[in-house]
Write the structure tokens for this entry.
Amino acid sequence: MPNPDHSSKSPLTLLVLLAVMVIATLVVISNYFLRPSMEFELTQKITKNLLSYGINNAVINVSGRDVTLTGSVLNHDESIKAVKLIRKNRDIRQVDNKLVIKNQTIE
């Protein structure tokens, strides 16, 4: 009696593997095309929000869902306000505050 070949895959298994590969490919492609658009929109939204509160010297860098703030602000309260305004956005995961305070004297 010949032994059945256990190395062959069933058609259902092959179909599932093919479906997983297609889904993974679509996720990678969508991230490649949608991420720059998402980052641009977040940058525009954050900039508009900060400007509406008079914070106009902050430089916003968005990478994915992370924001880095650089530039200068007038005082510590303005720095805290900028971070709080950005964190209100649900799309933001993390804010790295690298703002410097203008005319801060070292005693």
